[in-house]
């Protein structure tokens, strides 16, 4: 344990460091011969990063995705539970940011502080894999939307679409390499632009809303099954659309003020919750549940076309293109940062901590963009496998969420943190968040948890390389047990795939 001294707004303060907090801000070390630029990511830029990373392609398919397995009543219940669960998780990130200002990149740092280097590495590794797989999805979705206007792009996985997506990928790559600050500002502008068609949808859908349509089959018909199953189906959908709530926490090392991280997370949550709920519920007042559940995605286009005509569908397709473009930019930033911070602290290979003159983690960017390019090519030959990996990306990101909640429980129970940051409700809130995240893992089912082990195991080779660079033992005693368990699960998944009892 050590004493660290920091300065925020010219007022010094002290705090106790955990074994996993650094007395040196490694992101503050400029490349040789360069001046260190000031941190300029304030509350609104961080909020835009949260909103931009959550609002991608998911919201545009939300009406059909929700209605396919549930009636309006079950969807309302599902939103209430999910809203409380995700709010508790947002409050966890807010609480830890205030209590432990020395921890950077929350999804990685909180797992590491809870259970050590290897668990922290796996949290960062799983988050990174989920991020770049999701970026493949954004590009395919964007060019699938362009296929509405230009049939040559098809569903987003034709040769023309992959060529176009590759051009976008490397253009954004070059843009980010010119500076994080500029990329984050651009993300804020794009985020504002993509909220506009969503707000317009809400206004037009509200004007066309019919109470009789909304209440027809309110609790669903027999084909949808019991109410509990309907609620479960809606909550599984919301897991995917809410991924990105941790965006400000991942970028904590580049924030102006630590308190902005938590407030940006909570503000971003409420903004996106209102938009997501409005889109799914207003749609049920325009088209009945069976019709809505059978729409082609992006189903928002079908809903608005039914409300105002063809121009409504055109508006949504254009909005989707802008939205996924912004989501791609936000997740490019998050993916690179999720490698950079662990590498700065010796948990990943030190080459991934290298920055260019604009303080951009250049090698982390090249690796991330390279993986996106590789899997864009995969979509030409195996679309089904790609879609399965999207589900895998959701399962893999649930573990970092669970570790964050558990760390929040530990801090609240031990009453650790800065003076003035301790609140009576922190313990019940963090306990609720932990239970909610554990339930999401259960809801994901054994199939994708088994398959995710196949993606976690190769990460051990990267972790071993990082530890050998520092001439340190690779695993501690309990970490060996975790590694063996992952290998066993991956082996079981491989066997079940080989015999046809498990499919991608």
The secondary structure category is mainly alpha
- The percentage helix is 55-70%
Large-scale geometry: globular
Range of strand content: under 5%
Strand order of the largest sheet: 1-2
Mean pLDDT over the residues: 81
Unreliable stretches covering 5 or more consecutive residues: 1-38
Number of strands: 2
Distance between the termini: 46 Å
The radius of gyration over CA amounts to: 22 Å
Give the number of helices: 19
For the sheet with most strands, the description reads:
2 strands, antiparallel
Q: Order of SSEs, N→C? A: EEHHHHHHHHHHHHHHHHHHH
Keywords:
mainly alpha; 504 residues; disordered N terminus; single chain
What does this structure look like?
The protein is mainly alpha-helical and 504 residues long. 69% of the residues lie in helices and 3% in strands. The protein contains 19 helices and 2 strands. It has a two-stranded antiparallel sheet with strand order 1-2. Strand 1 and strand 2 form a beta hairpin. Helix 5 runs antiparallel to helix 14 and helix 14 packs across helix 15. The longest helix has 35 residues. The N terminus is likely disordered.
What is the topological layout?
Elements lengths: L1 E7 L2 E7 L25 H12 L7 H6 L4 H28 L6 H10 L1 H30 L12 H19 L2 H29 L2 H5 L11 H16 L4 H4 L7 H26 L5 H5 L5 H10 L1 H35 L17 H17 L4 H32 L11 H31 L2 H11 L7 H22 L6
Antiparallel strand pairs: 1-2
Summarize the structure.
The chain is mainly alpha-helical. The chain has helices at 43-54, 62-67, 72-99, 106-115, 117-146, 159-177, 180-208, 211-215, 227-242, 247-250, 258-283, 289-293, 299-308, 310-344, 362-378, 383-414, 426-456, 459-469, 477-498; strands at residues 2-8, 11-17.
């Amino acid at each position: 344990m050590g004493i660290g001294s920091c300065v925020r707004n010219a007022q010094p303060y002290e705090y106790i460091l955990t074994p996993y907090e650094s007395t040196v801000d490694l992101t503050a070390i400029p490349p040789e011969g360069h001046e260190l630029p000031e941190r300029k990511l304030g509350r609104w830029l961080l909020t835009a990063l949260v909103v931009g990373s959550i609002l991608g392609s998911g919201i545009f398919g939300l009406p059909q995705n929700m209605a396919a397995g549930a009636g309006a009543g079950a969807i309302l219940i599902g939103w209430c539970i999910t809203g409380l669960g995700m709010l508790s998780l947002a409050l966890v990130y807010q609480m830890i940011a205030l209590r432990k200002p020395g921890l950077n990149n929350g999804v990685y740092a909180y797992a590491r502080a809870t259970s050590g280097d290897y668990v922290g590495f796996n949290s960062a590794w799983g988050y990174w894999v989920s991020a770049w797989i999701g970026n493949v999805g954004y590009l395919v979705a964007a060019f699938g939307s362009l296929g509405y206007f230009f049939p040559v792009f098809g569903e987003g996985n034709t040769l023309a679409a992959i060529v176009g997506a590759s051009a976008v990928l490397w253009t954004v790559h070059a843009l980010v390499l010119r500076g994080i600050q500029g990329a984050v500002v651009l993300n804020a502008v794009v985020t504002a632009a993509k909220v506009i068609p969503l707000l317009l949808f809400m206004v037009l859908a509200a004007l066309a809303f019919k109470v009789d349509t909304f209440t027809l089959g309110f609790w669903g018909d027999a084909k949808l099954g019991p109410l509990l199953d309907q609620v479960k189906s809606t909550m599984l959908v919301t897991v995917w659309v809410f991924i990105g709530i941790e965006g400000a926490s991942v970028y904590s090392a580049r924030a102006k003020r630590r308190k902005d991280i938590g407030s940006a997370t909570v503000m971003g949550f409420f903004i996106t919750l209102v938009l997501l709920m409005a889109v799914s519920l207003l749609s049920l007042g325009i088209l009945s549940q069976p019709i809505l559940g059978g729409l082609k995605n992006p189903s928002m286009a079908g809903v608005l076309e039914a409300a105002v005509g063809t121009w409504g569908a055109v508006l949504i397709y254009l909005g989707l293109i802008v939205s996924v473009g912004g989501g791609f930019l936000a997740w490019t930033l998050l993916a690179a940062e999720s490698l950079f911070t662990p590498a700065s602290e010796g948990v990943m290979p030190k080459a991934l901590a290298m920055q260019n003159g604009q303080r951009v983690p250049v090698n982390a960017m090249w690796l991330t963009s390279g993986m996106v390019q590789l899997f864009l090519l995969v979509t030409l030959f195996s679309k089904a496998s790609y879609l399965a990996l999207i589900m895998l990306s959701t399962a893999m990101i649930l573990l970092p969420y669970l570790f964050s909640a558990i760390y929040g429980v530990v801090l609240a129970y031990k009453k650790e943190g800065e003076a003035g940051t301790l609140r009576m409700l922190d313990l019940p809130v963090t306990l609720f968040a932990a239970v909610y995240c554990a339930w999401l893992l259960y809801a994901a089912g054994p199939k994708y948890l088994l398959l995710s082990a196949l993606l976690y195991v190769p990460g051990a080779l990267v972790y071993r390389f990082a530890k050998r660079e520092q001439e340190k033992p690779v695993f501690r005693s309990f970490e060996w047990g975790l590694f063996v368990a992952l290998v066993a699960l991956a082996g079981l998944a491989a066997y079940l795939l080989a015999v046809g009892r498990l499919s991608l």
